[in-house]
Amino acid sequence: MKEVVLRLEVPKGLEPKVELAIERVLNMFLREIKFEVAREILKESEFSEEKARELAKEVNLSVAERHLE
User: Fold this and answer.
1) Backbone angles phi, psi at 37, to 5 degrees
2) d(CA 35, CA 50)
3) pLDDT given at position 56
4) What is the pLDDT along the chain (69 residues), one digit of tens a residue?
5) Helix, strand, coil fractions of the chain, as percent rounded to 5
6) What pTM did the predictor assign?
7) Is residue 24 within 8 Å of residue 16, measured between CB atoms?
8) What angle do CA 64, 34, 25 make, to 5 degrees?
9) What phi and psi, each to the nearest 5 degrees, are found at residue 25?
10) Do 31 and 38 touch, CB atoms closer than 8 A?
11) What pLDDT is stored for residue 68 in this prediction?
């Protein structure tokens, strides 16, 4: 895996704000990468949207039954 190193000169006193901003941006970036990988996997999938809805309905009913007991 390729490593990327980024060096920033941050003015004194702004370190915490810059760290937080970078952390937020990296989290969004990593989330987008995960979604892109998932999209690529699902593109080849035979799992239809209709089947996904059926499965979701079954899960919802199962969870509801457990909470009503």
Assistant:
1) -60, -45
2) 21
3) 93
4) 899 898 999 999 999 999 999 999 999 999 999 999 988 888 888 888 888 899 999 999 999 888 887
5) 70, 0, 30
6) 0.53
7) no
8) 110
9) -65, -45
10) no
11) 80
42: its two tokens: 């699902």
Q: Token pair 């990593």 is at which residue?
A: 30
The pLDDT score that the predictor gives to residue 6 is 87
Q: How many residues does the chain have?
A: 69
56: its two tokens: 């979701």
The answer to whether the CB of 8 falls within 8 A of the CB of 18 is yes
Distance CA 37, CA 50 (A): 22
| Alpha-carbon gap, residue 16 to 58, rounded angstroms | 46
